[in-house]
Design brief:
- This protein is about 35% helix and about 20% strand.
- α4 runs antiparallel to α5.
- It is elongated.
Length: about 190
């Protein structure tokens, strides 16, 4: 007698679930009050880009990378990243790597998912590459339009509009979809004036 196995349910398979870990890391970072922006991540991505409260951009790489001993130490950003990932429901823990002897490695976090996948996340500070004509994200586009308006000797109502656009851009991930669309429409209008 042979046993027949049902086909794999792709929505429930933990083997296919690993593709969504970058998305979950991005979701975890969005819940941190110390991280102001996280770029959208898609299943299968190997990097997550975010900006901390100081406006510094960082890229998390899910691939193991040898840390640069001369790199600037960014403990505050790492603490926020480790806490955000560690507190997310799809992760069991996230901790700064600590060798048996010596100080913490402030460039590397080990994250363990509930499905058993372990990742070494390597932090690299820097700018996100963008095309000459486009900003990296709609939020950056909205912020750019607001900044252009502010440097053009705006009226009081224009200044208020620019400040509101800057607020929406800074809190982009926390805003609802209709407000984001309206902010993008206002930014497009400002660019064409």
């Amino acid at each position: 007698m042979t046993t027949e196995f049902p086909p794999i349910d792709r929505d429930k398979s933990p083997l296919l679930d690993a593709d969504h870990d970058a998305v979950r890391i991005a979701d975890a970072l969005r819940s941190s009050p110390h991280i102001t922006f996280v770029a959208p991540a898609a299943p299968g991505d190997e990097t997550v880009w975010f900006r901390d409260a100081d406006g510094t951009g960082f890229e998390l790489s899910l691939a193991a990378v040898e840390p640069d001993p001369d790199a600037e130490r960014v403990a505050y950003a790492w603490d926020a990243v480790a806490a955000a990932i560690g507190n997310h429901r799809h992760f069991i823990r996230a901790a700064l790597e600590q060798p048996s002897f010596g100080p913490l490695n402030l460039n590397t976090i080990t994250a363990l998912t509930r499905t058993g996948n372990e990742y070494t996340l390597t932090l690299t500070a820097g700018y996100r590459p963008v095309d000459d004509q486009e900003h990296a994200t709609p939020a950056a586009d909205v912020a750019y339009a607001a900044d252009r308006l502010l440097i053009s000797d705006p009226s009081d109502s224009e200044r208020a509009t620019a400040e509101l656009l800057n607020y929406v851009a800074a809190t982009w991930d926390k805003q609802d979809h209709p407000l984001r669309e309206h902010a993008q429409a206002v930014a497009r209008t400002l660019r064409t004036r």
